[in-house]
Amino acid sequence: MRLLLVEDSEKLRRSVSDGLRKHGYAIDTAPDGEEGLHLAKTGEYDVIVLDVMLPKLDGIGMLTRLRNAENTTHVLLLTARDAVQDRVAGLRAGADDYLIKPFAFEELLARVEALARRSYNVKRQCVRIGPLEINTSSKTVNRDGTMLILPPREYALLEYLALRQGQVVSRSEIESHIYDSAAELMSNVVDSAICALRRKIDAAEGPSLIQTRRGLGYVLSSS
What we know:
Blueprint: E1 2-6, H1 10-22, E2 26-30, H2 33-42, E3 47-51, H3 59-68, E4 74-79, H4 84-92, E5 97-100, H5 105-119, E6 126-129, E7 132-135, E8 140-143, E9 146-148, H6 152-163, H7 171-178, H8 189-201, E10 210-213, E11 217-220
Helix pairs in contact: 2-3, 6-8
């Protein structure tokens, strides 16, 4: 999943982005509303985490411009203001959720997970595909009751395919949603990751759960 974090505090921006990366998210960051708006309009994100008090363009102004441009990315607002009218203003501007500073990272993570699932019309934290059960909260994978150990990047790939199960997912979509920087993107990185994932989730015999559609991409399906 790719997230955009717009936060003017360098310390908070670094700590939150580092924490989210450790949980397998690809993160872009911006220190002000103008840069955040540019990234949001030119990139593709599953969730935007947006501070309200920002230089150059505040969070409400950025959010309003995004919604006026018909950008429907789910937005989690961060603010030190806890008055009811402040929360109402953010929600009416188009925010999907609201978190008051200071906050526990675990709560921010849970809210991001919920919004990311909502982006793919998935309400439960457990996603089933045939013998696989993927828990998007604990970031764990079980096959027929046996826990599978996946590195963060392989888990992120599986989760993304699972949230779009039955759909063809292109190589470029995988690159933009899963990988955090161009430095990670060698020419065969997606193909290599798919092969590694197949070895761990597929049965010894029978067809792979991840089907290749030549020239189009990949589909995760139990059929």
